[in-house]
Design a protein that fits this description.
The structure is a single chain. By secondary structure, this protein is an alpha+beta fold. The chain is built from 24 helices and 26 strands. α19 runs antiparallel to α23. It is globular.
């Protein structure tokens, strides 16, 4: 990796370089001889019952804890439901290699599938495409969302690392001093420090007396991520506002400044109600917000400052802080077109923000954040090289995620900023955090820090891709290099160019139910379709899209002011979801070769989710030949952590076109076959030490049901069996057995 230069803090550059160096120490270089495969006409490795999903799950588990390190090219920009690269490497290899081939062996050989064409019609963050390219295949990616297209184009593009570093260093010289000016702080001894974070609290007027009420649920605003080991915490005094050091669980404290006794665990807000400290009137927070007609106001109550000795100190705000904020407000008002003026449309993932009267995307930021983002946007817009300008806009989007008034403080001992998408809805924070946008050596979520952790790491990975390998279950992951060619491609502009020039990559933005791809020209389709009733990506992606249009212009895929489109497969109506997914799968059937495979990952906790997928597959003319459970996203993801019965598994479904190879429909032995196969898969996972929730078992059983039912003479006949209640009894039996230990399964498959 090139040496780094410029005016950035040396500690920051050194820390990032040291982290990369540590990662590099564990890399084993594989032999360069590359097994070469041509996609066979017969059965494929992914269709084998012995497909090693339980071993693959252990490796995926290790990857899931640090996905941004193990697959950094897919983390140059936020996307939702990013699947694990190890899993998709195995899926691509398993769909292209012949039956009987050892998939695990292929993962750690420089395996190549030259000339094979892999399509992902829901490319999202581009994981499928990245893995296909690393395996020597040609890749076609399409997504209806322009933010996804923007992400993947930048992630897989050919970047000049020297030009990227030079552009960052120019921003560091010209823009960083302007931003850092607004984060200056005065220390108690009169010296100057730099503010890492400002702590704010939302306020509402009391409906009875009109006084402002702070929406604190607790006066403790900072504690360690491991409080029992480090019990020290910070609390603000309700009387004078002074910052006090307390124990994290203290129920009583005395302010060292004014002497007031208070309970640090208590605040005016409790659940959905608040109590006015002035008149003791209790009121509904939601109603008070609605009556206000605009978003709640904010009050600055504390800051965390970095001293010249690189020590951190919590302080209450002083006159300089308020003066700097007022200066930022005035400077913002004087700027022309400083930020995008774009309305927020109603939707499942935006309604909570709208309920708090956030009607425009720029209202997610305070005035200082808007000013500093505007300065940074101007600097990026002025970069001459288009590829570098777009990559810096990707970095800007990362900074948006961590620098707004919907973020919160995670505490010490961990990454300090909890980004705005930790929940899948746009949830207003009652005690938001304002981070230093440019950042310091001790910052979290800053523009400079993300340049190190996202952009430079991604560029290094693109030059030298690695995989991870485990010597044994739960063992420390070992990084293996020398398996893949470098990543960096100029994508074809259309399919004709892709076909005629032999280009390795073709990307497009649009509805995947209609493409320009030739009939029977794709070897395999590998994808991860969206859920119909979960996260609506476009509703969240608009947060980034409006800023990308503001910086880069509204041409090409950014013509529309929103990423929402009528052709989106996601839909809260199950029938509409099945229809739109079926339309995309019908197009996949058209472009697939006669012996081509469709493989995708999926899970759902409700019958409707499985019924919709089965209906879409059958109406598109596919049947399922194999279904394998595999480790899904990180176990501690916020929505999963809050679930009573979290789903830790995805199902890989391998499908073929209906025709001569269509399996025989066996209605009489349907559920016996489902229980036998599902039981064996549960046993394999439990023997590997994996604990399964009831919903995990449900995913396995429902997938095996879909596999058998896809052979039914009609979708109507299949769906009738899916809802007859038989699956629930099987799920209960297998979950009971898996919870008790290794289930005994003696049924014939």
């Amino acid at each position: 990796m090139d040496g780094m230069s410029g005016a950035a803090p040396k500690a920051k550059r050194g820390r990032a370089a040291a982290a990369d160096a540590q990662l590099a120490l564990d890399v084993t270089v594989a032999p360069r001889a590359a097994p070469v495969f041509i996609a066979p006409a017969g059965a494929r490795a992914i269709e084998d019952e012995s497909f090693p999903f339980e071993v693959l799950s252990d490796i995926a588990e290790a990857e899931s804890w640090r996905k941004e390190i193990h697959r950094p090219i897919h983390y140059v920009h936020k996307w939702w439901a990013r699947r694990l690269g190890t899993v998709f490497r195995a899926i691509v290899a398993g769909t292209l290699a012949p039956s009987g081939k050892d998939v695990m062996q292929m993962l750690y050989e420089p395996t190549r599938f030259p000339g094979a064409v892999v399509l992902d019609p829901f490319m999202g963050s581009g994981v499928t495409l990245g893995e296909a390219l690393k395996l020597g295949a040609r890749a076609i990616g399409r997504d209806i969302n322009p933010v996804a297209y923007f992400l993947v184009r930048n992630a897989l593009a050919r970047h000049d690392r020297a030009a990227v570093k030079a552009a960052f260093e120019h921003l560091e010289r010209e823009v960083a001093p302007q931003i850092r000016h607004y984060y200056r702080a005065r220390l108690p001894d009169g010296r100057e420090g730099e503010t890492l974070y400002y702590f704010w609290v939302k306020q509402l007027p009391c409906p009875s007396c009109g006084n402002s009420v702070d929406l604190f649920s607790s006066r403790v605003f900072s504690q360690n991520a491991y409080p029992k080991k480090v019990p020290r915490a910070q609390a603000t005094c309700p009387g004078c506002g002074e910052v006090n050091e307390v124990r994290y669980d203290a129920a009583e404290a005395t302010c060292h400044d004014c002497g007031e006794c208070f309970n640090p665990q208590s605040g005016p807000a409790s659940g959905q109600r608040a109590c006015c400290p002035s008149c003791s009137h209790k009121f509904s927070i939601a109603k008070a917000v609605r009556d206000r007609g605009e978003p709640p106001s904010h009050r600055l109550y504390a800051k965390l400052v970095l001293t010249p000795e690189n020590e951190k100190v919590y302080l209450r705000p002083d006159a300089l802080d308020f003066a700097l904020y007022a200066e930022a407000e005035a400077a913002l008002a004087a700027r022309r077109d400083p930020y995008p003026l774009a309305e927020i449309a109603p939707g499942y993932n935006t309604d909570q923000a709208l309920g708090y009267n956030y009607k425009f995307w720029h209202q997610f930021f305070n005035s200082r954040q808007l000013l500093c983002l505007s300065l940074l946007a101007d600097g990026i817009r002025a970069i001459a090289d288009a590829a570098t300008r777009e990559l810096m806009a990707c970095l800007f989007s990362g900074a948006l995620e961590f620098n707004n008034m919907f973020t919160s403080f995670k505490g010490e001992g961990t990454g300090a900023v909890r980004h705005m998408f930790s929940h899948h809805i746009l949830k207003p924070e009652r005690v938001p955090l304002e981070a230093n946008l440019w950042g310091t050596p001790a910052s979290s979520g800053s523009f400079s820090g993300l340049f190190d952790s996202r952009i430079l790491r991604a560029l290094k990975y693109a030059e030298e891709p690695t995989e991870i390998r485990l010597a044994a279950p739960r063992a420390k992951a070992e990084k293996v290099g020398g398996l893949s060619d470098p990543i960096g491609f100029v994508p074809a502009r259309n399919f004709t160019e892709f076909r005629d020039t032999g280009a390795r990559l073709y990307l497009s933005c649009g509805n995947s139910a209609q493409t320009d791809i030739d009939d029977a020209s794709v070897d395999v389709v590998v994808t991860d379709p969206p859920f119909f009733d979960n996260v609506h990506y476009s509703q969240l992606a608009d947060f980034f899209h409006v800023w990308q249009r503001h910086i880069l212009g509204g041409e090409g895929e950014r013509t529309a002011p929103t990423t929402r489109a009528s052709g989106e497969v996601q839909d809260e109506d199950g029938d509409k979801f099945a229809k739109k997914l079926g339309d995309v799968l019908t197009e996949c059937r058209r472009v697939l070769r006669p012996d081509g495979l469709l493989a995708f990952s999926y899970h759902h906790s409700r019958d409707e989710g499985w019924s919709a997928v089965l209906e879409a597959l059958m109406r598109a003319g596919f049947h399922i030949t194999a279904a394998h459970p595999v480790k899904a996203e990180m176990s501690v993801a916020q929505p999963k952590a809050l679930a009573k019965e979290p789903i830790d598994l995805d199902i890989i479904l391998a499908c073929r076109k209906n025709g001569r190879a269509r399996p025989v429909w066996n209605e009489a032995g349907l559920w016996q076959a489902v229980e036998a196969t599902a039981g064996l898969q549960v046993r394999r996972l439990v023997e590997r030490g994996r604990k399964l929730s009831r919903n995990d078992v449900r995913v396995i059983v429902m997938a095996q049901a879909l596999r058998r039912l896809s052979a039914a003479p009609s979708a109507e006949a299949a769906l009738k069996h899916l809802v007859d209640g038989e699956a629930g009894a099987i799920i209960d039996r297998l979950h009971h057995l898996s919870a008790a230990g290794v289930p005994e399964v003696d049924l014939d498959v």
